[in-house]
Amino acid sequence: MRIYIPKVHVVNNHSRYSTALVRLLGSLMLYFLFSLLAETVYAATENIDPLDSSHGSIWLMNDSGAYFNALLLETEVEFDISGMIARARVRQRFNNTSSFWAEGIYVFPLPDNAAVDHFRLRIGERIIEGQIQEKAKARKTYESAKNEGKQSGLIEQHRPNVFTTSLANIAPGETITIEIEYQQTLDYIDGNYKLRFPLVTGPRYQASSHTETQAYDISDFHAEVSESVNRPVRIHATLDTGTPVEDLNSSYHAIDIKQTDANRYRIALADNDVPADRDFELVWRPALKHRPDAAVFRERHGGYDYVLLSLLPPDLQSLGQIQLPRDVIFILDVSGSMAGTSIEQARSSLIQALARLDPEDRFNIIWFNDRSERLYPESMPATDNNIQYASNLVNSLDAGGGTVMLTALSLALDKQPDDSRVRQIVFLTDGNVDNEQELFALIKSRLGENRLFTVGIGSAPNSFFMRKAARTGRGTFTYIGNIDEVAQKTGALFEKLASPALIDIDVSIEGQDVEIYPEPVPDLYLGEPLVILARGKHLENSLALYGEYGESQWQQRLVLPENTEHPGIHTAWARSRITALMEQHHDAGTQKHRDTLKNEIIQTSVDHHLLSRYTSLVAVDVTPVNNSGML
Q1: Hey, what long-range contacts does 391-394 have (CB within 8 A, 24 or more apart)?
Q2: For a designed S-S bond to 169, which of 484, 547, 598, 626 qualifies (C-beta 3.0 to 4.6 A apart)?
Q3: CB 403 within 8 A of CB 337
Q4: Confidence category of residue 236, pLDDT binned at 50, 70, 90
Q5: pLDDT at position 152
Q6: What is the 3-state secondary structure (H, E, C) of 120-136?
Q7: More confident residue, 20 or 343
Q8: Whole-model pTM?
Q9: What local confidence, expressed as pLDDT, does residue 314 receive?
Q10: Do residues 581 and 597 make contact, with C-beta atoms less than 8 angstroms apart?
Q11: Enclosing H/E stretch for 554
């Protein structure tokens, strides 16, 4: 809501009556203005979507159904990092500064590849633990507690990487402390691991320039007042890298670092309490060796041993000495569903990919709609003339017709690479098919030593098909949703494809009931570490890793550490298992099989305290606190 304040012109008059009248009118105007402010301040943010919050925040709802920010008092964060896995415990205190009972929504934006697994409410001296329940049961528990006037909380996923907690019966002036624990796989960018925690919300207040009529956005003014309060932040981290590091620092804060073991560090902000005026980012660079290297971490949980293997590629100079030339087969979808922007993005991506081929590489192009064609009968050398000829042909292709992928995939998978080359298949499509199972079966039976990489094109690609096709093909999935992203994302993909570091990776772990994820294990590429997770009972004291490094065999034996204080490895393993079960659920041919897999997913979620598609976290205070009859 905007209030327009007209410029008041006062005529200079020496009459004391006129002066009194002007003062009275001024007072009435101020009274009217502040009355409007009071009436609109809580309805101010009705056009703001709480799910767009960029940091942890509580949005309270007033009687008219509009949201406003609760006052954030402080934030405490504790990280426990093992290799590429980071576990975070976040504690935030808020206050309901309004004069009414309110229902609230706690919104916490998570990093990519993060999963919430614990949630607590602290009300006074009491601590209420969240429990994983099947989703419908959790909602029923929450609504029942809310109707009985009990403190309650429910956390569910409404968008990717945005988790919300519904809160009911928050008393006027009450302080609510929320604690969540989440886990993420860290980013590895330009040779550095990066851990980032959001603390800052950009200012929303905007005032127009001084003119005769000025507009003040009351919603923005209220948000600015709430967020300008000095909200102290405390951050601590325990870091176990598993391998030596070259550098460790914070991008935006001064930090204290204490090395407690060969590859273990304790980190804290140099100033114990800092204002929330910038995001926190911790960065460290592992010391790469001349060959692939691995680190192993261990956790005991529920009678099982859980193992995390972190593989690092070698340094660029060493990798350059063993790189093999490639055969790259491009498959381009030119069916009717690709018409418009999608085919433009696909053409641009393919032309940029062709330009990145090395002279010793070979290539071919297959395009399809309801029929399939290929540029050459056999792969051709990536000479300048051949690249130019292929680029001209790609520019002439347009979208139309049906979608028959099977023939195109069969053409691409008709050969196996010889020992002196790597064969990669790059599939550019929106994935709009109805015979997914037939395609998956073809990939499994014909893949051999080929590698399949999928590139999703357009605003709504079939991400499930393309992710699973890439995983089955021991490759990766890249999504390009905007033509402006083509250069950056295509460049990153083909830089990776040019530098396979370790292929045909195998893990040997002796023990009982051993389960390893992902299955199959993907290849290791330059600039992209790999995580392997395993669970078993009565494991041997060591394990072995095998792979092909250039034209030679590579292996490394690792001793399982006695230290099992690496919380969260079982959580990471369970997330991987749930992903695999969800794929099986999607592929299940009968309702009975789907129900069995659904029950396995729910049981895995409950055993490891994880949110999933079928589970929620619910917490209820057993003491009724709302006797006013409101809400």
Answers
A1: 391/351, 391/354, 391/355, 393/365, 394/332, 394/347, 394/350, 394/351, 394/354, 394/365
A2: 626
A3: yes
A4: very high
A5: 65
A6: EEEECCEEEECEEEEHH
A7: 343
A8: 0.75
A9: 87
A10: yes
A11: strand 552-559
- Enumerate the H helices of 356-505 as residue ranges: 384-396, 405-412, 436-446, 463-472, 486-497
Question: What does the DSSP 8-state code read for residue 207?
Answer: B
Q: Is the separation of the CB atoms in 453 and 462 below 8 Å?
A: no
pLDDT digits (tens, 9 = 90+) for 268-316: 999 888 887 788 899 999 998 888 999 999 999 999 999 999 999 888 7
Structural tokens at position 227: 């967020």
Q: Which of 284, 293, 376 is nearest to 79 (CA)?
A: 284
What is the spatial distance between Cα 219 and Cα 52, in angstroms, rounded to a whole number?
15
Q: What is the 3-state secondary structure (H, E, C) of 420-432?
A: CCEEEEEEEECCC
Look up residue 582 and give its DSSP letter: H
pLDDT at position 617 is 80
Instruction: Name the average pLDDT for the chain.
Output: 80
Distance CA 464, CA 474 (A): 15
Omega prior to 461 cis, within 30 of 0: no
How far does Cα 453 stand from its chain's mean position? Answer: 20
Q: Using CA atoms, how far apart are residues 373 and 371, in angstroms rounded to an integer?
A: 7
Give the alpha-carbon dihedral of 41, 180, 194, 59, to 10 degrees: -10
Instruction: Tell which phi-psi region holds residue 16, choosing left (phi > 0), alpha (psi between -120 and 50) or beta.
Output: alpha
Two tokens at 197?
Answer: 């925690």
Average pLDDT over residues 386-391: 96
